Predict the 3D structure of the following.
Amino acid sequence: MRRLRACLGAAAAVTAAAAGTTALVAGSASGAAGALDNRWYAAAPYLMPLDNDPPDPAAIMDATGLKAFQLAFVLAPDGGGCSPTWGGTAPVSSDTAVQSVINTIRAKGGDVSVSIGGYGGTKLGQACANAASTAAAYQQVITKYGLHAIDFDLEEPEYENTAAIKNEIGAAKILQQNNPGLYVSVTTAGTADGTGWFGKQMLLEAKSQGFTPNNFSIMPFDGGFNGAASQTGALTNFNSVLQSTFGWDQATAYAHEGFSGMNGRSDTGEYFTQADFQTVLDYATSHHMDRFTFWSLNRDRQCTPADNGGRTSGICSSVAQNSWDFAKYSVKFAGVTPPTGTPTPTPTPTPTPASCKAAWSGASVYTAGNEVSYGKHNWKAKWWTQNETPGASEWGPWQDEGAC
C-alpha cells in the first residue's frame, strides 16, 4: 500500500464534445484548461504539492517532457466533516497554493488529475453520509480546478469498510455520469494473486453498482514483491480477477487494467530499479494496459545521507539515479520520447541545520502541528499520536522537517 503513500484503444483522446460538456460543469473553475489526451492522465505520476519537499513541476516538464501530474491527496477534514481538504488540513474551498501549482503546469501546456484517499487520514467515503454527499464533496474539487481526470485511491482502513467503499464507488459513478469525458481511475492494493480480499470486494461493489472506470489499477509493492517479475505476475493474475468478476475477455480486462508502482525502496524494503520499471512498462504496453503510474515524483531523485540514512524516504528513492529518471517511463507510456542528454544541474546550497526541537517521548501525546526532534531530525505531527516513533513509517503520523 502507498504509505502516507491505461489499453491503447481505451485511452482515446477526450472528444471535443465531451471536453465541451465537462467545461460546462467546470466552466467557472479557476484555471480551467483544455483536456489532454487520456493517455497522459493514464501516465501521470503522483506528486504531493504541499508535503514531502515538493519538486518544481516546471523543471520536471522541461527535463522529461512530462505533461500530466497526479496530485495527492484529497481527504476529509481532520476535525470531521464532509468537505474536501488537502491532506486533511487545507480546505479546497480556500486553496491558493495547489491552484498555483496547477496554473504553473497548465501554463506550460500540461494538466493535472487529483487523487483522493491514499493511506493516511480520514477519507470522504468514511466521513460522508452516502454516495451522493461524497460525490458532492468531490464535485467541489472538480469544479474548482476544472478537472478532466480523477483518481480514487482506495486503501486501508477505508477499503476494509463496506459502507465507505459503497460511498466511494457510488460517488465515482455519479461523477462519471455528471462530468462526461472525465477520466476515472480506481487504485487499490496489489498482491501476488492480483489483489487481496478487500480489493476483490471493491470490484464486486463496482459490478453491483454497474460502474466501470477507465481502469482499475493495483499497487504491486509493500506485499513481498521482489522486482519486476513479481509485479508482472501480479498484473497477469489481476487480469484474471477482472475477467472473472466482470465477464470480460482477456483483452478487455487489460484495456481496463492499470499499474501503480513505487520507485526505488518501498516501505517494506523492496527495491524497484529503473530496469524493473522498463520491464513493467514493456509488459503494460505489449498488453495494451490502460495505465502506468508510480509513487512518487517527490521521491524521483537521489538521496543524500541526510535525506535517507538507509531508510525509505518520502523525498528520494534510495537507489542510484539521476533526477526524474522514473518520470521518463511515464513519458514513454504516454507515447512520447523523453529528451536525450542530462541537463546541467543547478548547484544547491548546503542548508544550515535548524535548531532541534524538544526530544520525542513515547509516553507523550502529540496532536497535529506539534514538533519534536528525533534522530537529529525535526518532526511535525500530522495528527494525534502516541508512542509512534518518528520515521518508523514513511506514511506514519510524523512529517520529516529535515536535519537539526
